[in-house]
Design brief:
The complex is a heterodimer of chains A (799) and B (444). Chain A has 799 residues and is of the alpha+beta class. Chain A is built from 27 helices and 18 strands. Chain A has a 4-stranded antiparallel beta sheet with strand order 2-9-4-7, with no helix packed on it. In chain A, strands 3-8-5-6 form a 4-stranded antiparallel beta sheet, with no helix packed on it. In chain B, helix 4 packs parallel to helix 11, helix 6 packs antiparallel against helix 7 and helix 8 runs parallel beside helix 10. With 444 residues, chain B is an alpha/beta fold. Classes of the chains: A alpha+beta (799), B alpha/beta (444). At the A-B interface, strand 1, helix 6, strand 2, helix 9 and helix 10 of A face strand 6, helix 5, helix 6, helix 7 and strand 9 of B.
Chain lengths: 799, 444
């Protein structure tokens, strides 16, 4: 039985296409006898007949004589390895070797390639200055200044322009641009954030508008809000100063004829209860009812993170529990909140005692003479964490003039604020700069007259540079003190220390960035927010469902990571996370309540693993129907690193009309016709079967037996003839080669961590990661450690 | 919410740096000897994506008095100011056997005439070219508060984009071959960039001084860092330094040019509906033009691959999906409705510019607005016979009000060259241009 991977097809653009790197399973036949491990003979027998100088089939020539120096043509040999590992060459019809030969030749080549790479590592080129992405900036501000809930008006998404991504990741260094308009935004953000962090009483009034989605039902209690309430929302926000703020509530649909009560809570304590509504007796009819109440409340709020809750007090009355048709839900009879606006501070205010102030002011000047020393202490401490290295005299020479200006213009606090503003636009904050200095790795920041390394040499980055790479990889944020300390002491590269730090960081709550930043980008999960399923065809798709879908996938991925499961469980798990809304959508009974909980799935359930998640099923559909092609492409690209090349020009339109007038073809019939064209078939033969296997899931991820009145036919056939039925069958096929999926995860992690697209010379590193993670069954921790220890992560090429 | 209806009433003079009377921009431009004010050119580039239904866009008749096709009906009130150009193509957006996809290439080619690079060199991620709007901004926008303004109504695309290169669709304006300009979608951010974040003139001045001293300090810092790094790859730090210098220049421009306009209320939120959002952005643009805060703007009215739906005009499906109509009459009609709606939005801007007086005529007389996209037939991903509308007279350099039909596949880059010429940009070739586009009626 040939170990053929049905998802690979011959490259259409062999010369130009970026090589999709895939690693091999530890070969069971690697114990082949000595003569069998020499690849020259099999290559000559099976490959050179076409790929020789004379015929140059596919523009590719294989010369076994070049085996003595595999490293000289590593890009070509890596292509050969890929073809062998996926069994796509020799092509069907030509004589093919047995499985043992495939494995031994591929292993032998890999060994040579790995050896060549070890002798002369290539780690690719990266720009010297790697700008923080917007997500990283947000997290850096959170960790530097203890500002985890910026007010809406100051949210980083609003303050800074969006980043660009490549292959789905916004950590790609070459795409992190700086332009004058971005610079203006950085300046603006620095001013606003520094004012917020220090608690500037002259801060202009912030107006934070929180609209509620009209489709969000408001007949149940919302998370974070007190029991006994319904609807509304809870807003967590960092309040800049102690002062008076206004909470204004806009109702949708007016007060109506019944009396209702609106409750405002601050950190869970009721601070306002306002009754409104209720028509004078006898008016009757629709036109009656009290005028819209003025729901504006001044509140005294202390600086720091606070939870403002605005909700209705739940009225007890018999009500329909149906969850369908949100538009006909309680809206018609009960008031709902359209928006909550929190503005302020109004009038006089004082700085207060917020976590950010406590973080910043680690000393207080005892007198005028103590101001400069205390400022130096404060700014050194901030700069150390902001710049990710010990602060130097040069740094302080840049910052102290701004302190002096602010001090002269106002107060000690204003001085610190001005210096902080300057710090937040420094190149030392906005960029990770990896300096090609020669010498020992004991890091010394900002030295002049240090000789530089020769261009093209590959060298190990310094401890401090490694610390930054680690924290941005695992936390999407700045290093903490413990990590910095280890780096400054020069201990970080010691294997035991590195290991311990990585495990510590994975256990830390900040590693949730691997779920919300890495996994969400890898799986294109963010696309769910832009999806707009047709309102008529999918009437019960609303914002609650969308949010629930996203949450399910996040919680699921998080569980696989945190519970040290094999990443293969992402495909094969027998559990998921549901709340009532999502469970009803999936047709899973006995799940009540809006909170998420783990739900074990019965054997054979189609919902286990990512392929059954509503989020990904919706992302890979159109707004009115499913798309087997989109789904097939998504699986190939994101789970198997085997993306098909882009479609050729001049694609004819997809014919959906049948022979008889008025006859409409099913999706499958239409696609079959389309695939009759051989130039289309080579890629579609790979994509479509996957998509068809998933056709039981409609465009919003519901299970269905029929489509357009006809029963779903979810049988797929791969180019090599393998047949499988439905998602269960597809999963079985995918799981035959678990190392393929693990390899994809490894590649994505490496790409994300290092900040560039992978090339052929990264293949040895990926193989090493997989080899070392195999004994641990490919847990995330083992893959992460593999990435951290890899050459591309630990080394740079001097440019 | 933003109160848009203020026509230009009596001017309020804002005091700035010692001057008690702020002179209107026009008067300040008056050369000593001449009586008539020197006209200030304005340029606009508005991009629409996913192609158009060409049959309903391109008029049958040519010359002046051409028939207003269904999609172009919204221009009835300004038809004297609008020219339709047909037959122009951007063939550099076709696939040359590489990746990137037709949609990213369409955005990339529109103002460059260049085939978007697709990572054919290992390790090199991105390369395009300086776009025409930036070339113009470098000439006519040097002394304005903002050399150019980049807007978008669609938010940037994240996640999947054809073959992964979303940065090509996220903007149509590139500073140089490796630096795209980000777009602004929040009206509030646009307002603040144009007019500051409120507060008195004194506060604004103080803010500018403070930023100036920060930028000064940054320049010194980066020079130092660059010195340490030797001649290594400093592309990113170079961008940073350039940006620092550019913002310093803008601040200097702002300080020497007081704002002479009555400012409307700061917009607070982002309008939910497409038309409200677009009109608000156009309100701000028109205001920026009137106050001469900027002279060049580009806007992405719809982003390539846009999945926006237009329920309020009866199109609940996504724009991109509808554009692949597969010759289904229902989908064709829906796409045409979107095309019409976008035309309505541009007509709104043109009418606003027409309503604003400048010198002896209107602001539209001094402007040139290019409306169109890099995709022609969105269903088949063709980049031929592109939608292309040129509005305004640019102070007399253009004579609008006609349908000019060119030999099929005449490079649109030729049109760009003509526009660049009119803007005073010294350039002989742009992308795949073969010469300037003659703007007199041609025979077929």
């Amino acid at each position: 039985m040939l170990c053929s991977a049905w998802w690979s097809a011959p490259d259409l653009q062999a010369a130009q296409a970026p090589v999709a790197v895939r690693a091999a399973a530890p070969s069971t036949s690697a114990q082949a006898s000595a003569d069998k491990s020499d690849p020259a003979a099999p290559l000559a027998k099976y490959c050179v007949t076409c790929h020789n100088e004379r015929l140059k089939t596919g523009g590719f020539v294989i010369d076994p004589a070049q085996l003595i120096d595999v490293g000289a043509h590593a890009d070509a040999w890596e292509k050969v390895v890929k073809k062998l590992r996926t069994g796509t060459m020799p092509p069907s019809g030509a004589p093919r070797p047995d499985q043992a030969t495939y494995d031994s030749v591929a292993s032998a080549l890999e060994t040579s390639l790995d050896r060549a790479a070890a002798a002369r590592p290539r780690v690719g080129t990266l720009p010297i200055a790697h700008r923080l992405s917007r997500t990283e900036y947000r997290n850096a501000v959170r960790d530097l200044l203890a500002l985890g809930d910026l007010p809406k008006e100051l949210s980083i998404d609003y303050l800074l322009p969006a980043d660009n991504s490549s292959s789905g990741f916004d950590t790609i260094a070459d795409l992190l641009f700086v332009s004058p308009s971005a610079m203006e935004r950085y300046l603006d953000a620095a001013q606003k954030i520094s004012r917020l962090a220090v608690g500037d009483t002259t801060l202009p009034v912030l107006v934070n508008i929180h609209p509620l989605d009209p489709e969000h039902p408001q007949d149940e209690r919302v998370d974070d809000l007190p029991f006994g309430t319904r609807g509304g929302l809870g807003v967590r926000s960092d309040f800049p100063v102690d002062g008076t703020y206004t909470v204004k509530v806009e109702l949708a649909g007016g007060a109506g004829r019944d009396r209702h009560q609106l409750e405002v809570t601050l950190d869970g304590e009721r601070v306002k209860l306002e009754a409104f509504g209720g028509a004078p007796a006898g008016r009757g009819g629709r036109g009656g009812g009290a005028p819209d109440p003025r729901l504006e409340f001044p509140l005294t709020i202390k600086a720091g993170p606070r939870l403002i809750g605005v909700a209705f007090v739940q009225r007890t009355e018999a009500r329909d529990e149906a969850t369908l048709r949100p538009r006909t839900r309680s809206r018609g009879t009960q008031p709902a909140i359209a928006s909550v606006t929190i503005s302020g501070p109004h009038g006089a205010s004082t700085p207060g005692d917020s976590p950010s102030r406590r973080r910043i002011f680690i000393c207080r000047p005892s007198g005028p003479a103590d101001e400069a020393p205390c400022a130096t202490k404060i700014l050194s401490s901030l700069a150390r964490r902001a710049y990710r290295r010990p602060a130097t005299d040069v740094d302080l020479r840049d910052l102290m003039p701004f302190f002096a200006q602010g001090r002269a213009a106002g107060s000690f606090d204003l001085g610190i604020q001005k210096a902080l503003e300057r710090m937040l636009v420094s190149s030392q904050f906005l960029f990770r700069i990896e300096r090609p200095w020669s010498g020992t790795s004991k890091d010394v920041p900002l030295r002049t007259n240090v000789p530089l390394r020769t261009e093209g040499t590959t060298y190990r980055i310094s401890d401090l540079e490694l610390a930054s790479r680690l924290s941005f990889f695992l936390w999407s944020s700045i290093p903490d003190d413990e990590l910095l300390d280890a780096a400054v002491a020069g201990r970080l590269k010691q294997p035991a220390v590195l290991d311990r730090q990585v495990r510590r960081m994975l256990a830390d709550a900040r590693s949730s960035a691997l779920v919300t930043n890495f996994a969400a980008q890898w799986l294109y999960l963010r696309d769910i927010e832009a999806k707009l399923p047709d309102e008529v065809l999918f009437q019960d798709f609303d914002e609650t469902l969308r949010a629930a879908m996203e949450r399910e996938t996040e919680l699921f991925v998080d569980s696989v990571f945190r519970e040290n499961r094999s990443v293969i469980d992402l495909l094969s798990a027998d559990y998921t996370f549901l709340n009532e809304r999502l469970a009803k959508h999936y047709g899973i009974p006995n799940v009540r309540g809006s909170y998420f909980r783990r739900v074990p799935l019965p054997a054979g359930s189609p919902r286990g693993g990512l392929l059954g998640h509503g989020s990904l099923l919706t992302i890979t559909s159109y707004s009115t129907r499913t798309s087997p092609v989109l789904r097939g492409k998504w699986v190939l690209e994101n789970l198997l690193s085997a993306a098909p090349p882009p479609p050729p020009a001049d694609i004819p339109a997809l014919e959906t009309k049948g022979a008889a007038p008025g006859e409409q073809l099913t999706m499958r019939e239409a696609m079959t016709r389309h695939r009759a064209n051989p130039s289309c078939a080579s890629c579609h033969a790979r994509m479509d079967p996957i998509g068809f296997a998933m056709e039981h899931f409609d465009a919003v991820g519901r299970w269905r037996e029929n489509d357009g009145g006809q029963p779903i036919d979810a049988v797929g056939v791969f180019p090599d003839g393998t047949k499988f039925d439905g998602v269960a069958g597809l999963k079985r096929e995918l799981l035959r080669h678990p190392e393929q999926f693990a390899g994809t995860v490894a590649e994505r992690l490496l790409m994300y961590a290092v900040g560039r697209n992978l090339q052929y010379y990264d293949a040895p590193a990926v193989r090493a990661i997989l080899r070392n993670a195999a004994p641990a069954r490919y847990t995330l921790a083992s893959l992460v450690l593999g990435v951290v220890k890899s050459q591309p992560f630990q080394m740079r090429e001097a440019s | 919410m933003f109160v848009a209806k203020k026509a230009l009433p009596r001017r309020t003079f804002l005091r700035a740096m010692g001057a008690t009377v702020a002179l209107p921009m026009l008067d300040a431009m008056v050369p000593a000897l001449s009586a008539a004010p020197k006209p200030i050119p304005r340029f606009g580039f508005v991009y629409i994506a996913n192609g158009v239904i060409q049959k309903q866009w391109i008029p049958e008749t040519t010359g002046a008095g051409f028939d207003l096709t269904p999609t172009l009906q919204p221009f009835a009130n300004v038809r004297q100011q609008v020219s339709v150009l047909s037959g122009l193509s951007h063939l550099q957006a076709d696939t040359f056997g590489d990746g990137t996809g037709d949609h990213p290439r369409a955005s990339a080619v529109w103002l460059t005439g260049v085939h978007a690079y697709d990572r054919t060199v290992p390790g090199v991620e991105v390369r395009l070219a300086t776009t025409a709007d930036q070339m113009i901004a470098n000439v006519v926008g040097r002394t304005s508060r903002l050399p150019s303004l980049e807007l978008a109504v669609d938010f940037p695309t994240q996640g999947a984009c054809d073959s992964g290169d979303c940065f090509y669709v996220n903007t149509v304006s590139w500073r140089n071959a490796t630096t795209p300009n980000p777009t602004e979608s929040h009206p509030r951010v646009v307002f603040e960039r144009l007019f500051g974040d409120g507060g008195s003139a004194e506060a604004r001045q103080a803010r500018m001084r403070s930023q100036g001293s920060i930028l000064d300090s940054l320049r010194a810092e980066v020079s130092r860092v660059n010195a340490e790094l030797g001649s290594g790859d400093t592309v990113k730090l170079g961008e940073y330094l350039e940006s620092v210098r550019e913002v310093e220049q803008r601040i200097q421009n702002s300080e020497s040019q007081p704002l002479d306009i009555e400012l409307p209320e700061r917009p607070l939120g982002i309008p939910e509906r497409f038309d409200e959002h677009t009109k608000l952005m156009f309100d701000l643009t028109a205001l920026a033009f009137r106050a001469d805060v900027t002279r060049v703007f580009s806007m992405i009215m719809s982003r390539e691959l846009s999945s926006r739906t237009f329920a309020h005009i009866g199109v609940p499906e996504q724009h991109h999906a509808v554009s692949h109509h597969r010759n289904d009459p229902d989908l064709i009609s829906k796409k045409a409705r979107i095309d019409f709606h976008q035309a309505q939005m541009l007509a709104y801007l043109l009418e606003k510019l027409q309503d604003a007086k400048e010198g002896d005529g209107t602001l539209l007389d001094q402007s040139l607005v290019l409306f169109g996209g890099g995709m022609g037939d969105g269903n088949l991903h063709r980049h031929a016979d592109l939608p292309c509308l040129v509005a305004g007279k640019l102070g007399g350099a253009f004579k609008p009000g006609r349908h000019l039909r060119y030999k099929m596949d005449t490079p649109m880059s030729n049109l760009l060259l003509t526009v660049l010429d009119a803007a005073g940009v010294p350039i002989e070739k742009l992308g795949d241009s073969t010469g300037r586009l003659p703007l007199e009626p041609l025979s077929l």
